[in-house]
């Protein structure tokens, strides 16, 4: 494991604190900053360094100016091996929290100051996951290849110019059938003339099979001498391990960040609510803990911790999720929650269902309604049920 030296971005003159807008935690700020720091922690597989991104496999994001009331939740998240991103000026508190929790600290400068705290246990877990997905020996004699991993979604968050520039160089484009059929039309992106299209079947019953399919497509193109390839990834390329299975032998990787579809959906669906559920922070984690080496007991403990601390949660991979633990954590919460299920978001079959947690039966039924389709679950404080009413 290597923790490489901090690199600095060029700072620009910042506006006075009185006019600075609070960070949008459901926007691209965290994910753009994560690209800048993704190479600072690496693990080795087949002699190649593989980055450990602080926003892979789930994370907690908090506004730095809300760290004092949220300090215990942040510290607990780090002790539970979940990375934390503090968004805004917080160099001193971030360094102190990193020391107290044995975490790596990687920071970016203004105008998008973000401090990533990455627990060492998380790095060890990611190393095991990367090495598990990099078990095959790299082929000898492959020609060099550059892969542009591009985060695409229904909204581009100001990355359209970067995406189009990367696509214009591509001789081939690799993506899942869902991305080609649903996301590209919604984003208003077109494939470059002459670029070949390579479809990876999206298997919602086996995420690892989809990851292996992407690497197999890239390797077949590399074997054929295709040196410029675009890999389109739903949301953000570093989130939830899509790139863990992409080998780096004779291959260079560039990233254009995006916003995970679930985070974008959380922001869009709740934007009109007051109080805004994601103003202070959010926890983004998988409801399918076994896929990430986590037990059901660990998932229950972690989700219970965040909900008890008042942190709004975005639960992904809920298609075949640990339904019982999710419902139990919501039931245990000291403040009554609202639960929102987003099924097949941004597709023609999209639907939204809402339940107020005063009724455990309704909560269970609503979460269960998302099983078997691509679904995300949002959980946030709503003691009076007013937000639930506003969403119906």
Got a strand count? 17
Largest sheet: 9 strands, mixed
Rounded radius of gyration (Å): 20 Å
Order of helices and strands: EHEEEHEHEEHEHEHEHEEHEHEHEEHEH
Form type: globular
Q: Looking across the biggest beta sheet, what order are the strands in?
A: 6-7-5-4-13-14-17-15-16
Kindly report the average pLDDT value.
Answer: 91
> Runs with pLDDT <50, length 5+?
1-19
- CA(first)-CA(last) distance: 48 Å
Count of individual helical segments: 12
Class of secondary structure makeup: alpha/beta
Question: Could you tell me the strand content as a percent range?
Answer: 15-25%
Question: Percent helix among the residues?
Answer: 25-40%
Task: Report on the architecture of this protein.
Strand 6 (103-107) and strand 7 form a beta hairpin. The chain contains 12 helices and 17 strands. The relative contact order is 0.13. The chain has a 9-stranded mixed beta sheet with strand order 6-7-5-4-13-14-17-15-16, sandwiched between helices. A 5-stranded parallel beta sheet has the order 10-9-11-8-12, with helices on both faces. The longest helix has 17 residues, at 207-223. It has 392 residues and is an alpha/beta fold. The protein has helices at residues 29-37, 67-79, 91-101, 120-133, 160-169, 177-187, 207-223, 261-270, 296-308, 323-332, 360-368, 386-391; strands at 2-3, 41-45, 48-51, 59-63, 84-87, 103-107, 114-119, 145-152, 172-176, 196-200, 228-234, 251-256, 281-286, 312-316, 337-343, 351-356, 375-381. Helix 9 packs parallel to helix 10 and helix 10 runs antiparallel to helix 11.
Secondary-structure blueprint:
Blueprint: E1 2-3, H1 29-37, E2 41-45, E3 48-51, E4 59-63, H2 67-79, E5 84-87, H3 91-101, E6 103-107, E7 114-119, H4 120-133, E8 145-152, H5 160-169, E9 172-176, H6 177-187, E10 196-200, H7 207-223, E11 228-234, E12 251-256, H8 261-270, E13 281-286, H9 296-308, E14 312-316, H10 323-332, E15 337-343, E16 351-356, H11 360-368, E17 375-381, H12 386-391
Parallel strand pairs: 4-5, 8-11, 8-12, 9-10, 9-11, 13-14
Antiparallel strand pairs: 1-2, 2-3, 4-13, 5-7, 6-7, 14-17, 15-16, 15-17
